[in-house]
Amino acid sequence: MTETNWQLPLRLAALGFVAVIVQIAAISQITVFGVSVDLAPLVVASVGLLAGSLPGAVFGFAVGLFVDLALVQTLGVTSLLYILIGYAAGRLRELRDPAHGLVPLFVGAAATAIATIGFALLQFMLGVQAPVSWLLLRQVVVTILLGALFALPVYALVRRIVQGSLPDDPRRRRRRAYTTGGLSPLSRPSQSR
């Protein structure tokens, strides 16, 4: 592999490590309405939106495994959810090519919802006893709203970190050439003799 091929994995590894450490050491200590912001699903969704489904799923697995190891939780629960988040965000990029500026907001809200509700459901299915009440529902809703609020700044930061190492997408380059005044190969004037 050349140096440019190693840039994206190295940047993603550093990003995942720093994001989880900052989340555990600092962000989890700050509460708003009794809940704290979970940056990890937002970072995973942002990587999926920027790099695609496969890098998003691999990054989600690695970040989820690191979160499980750091918090001494059941291994694989967070990894499973983050794989889903990274892959779904990457497939959205590959299939729909969303260009609107608010797409990260909705993807961030969906990623936070998947992470929060999915973690609660998986823990319930694994037999962890936890009280279910209206307080839990309120915390889930506030967590999703906070995730949506922080989705745009997290996306902008992740884009700034990984932008130089993302491979060029030939579909975007081809489409951009045609929409900016370039001639389509089908509309070339015929050469007369």
Automatic annotation (TrEMBL):
Keywords: Cell membrane, Cell shape, Membrane, Transmembrane, Transmembrane helix. Residues 170-193 are annotated as: Disordered. It is found in: Cell membrane. It is a multi-pass membrane protein. The chain crosses the membrane at residues 12-35, 42-63, 69-90, 102-124, 136-158. Belongs to the MreD family. This is Rod shape-determining protein MreD. It comes from Conexibacter stalactiti. The lineage of its organism: Bacteria, Bacillati, Actinomycetota, Thermoleophilia, Solirubrobacterales. The gene is mreD.
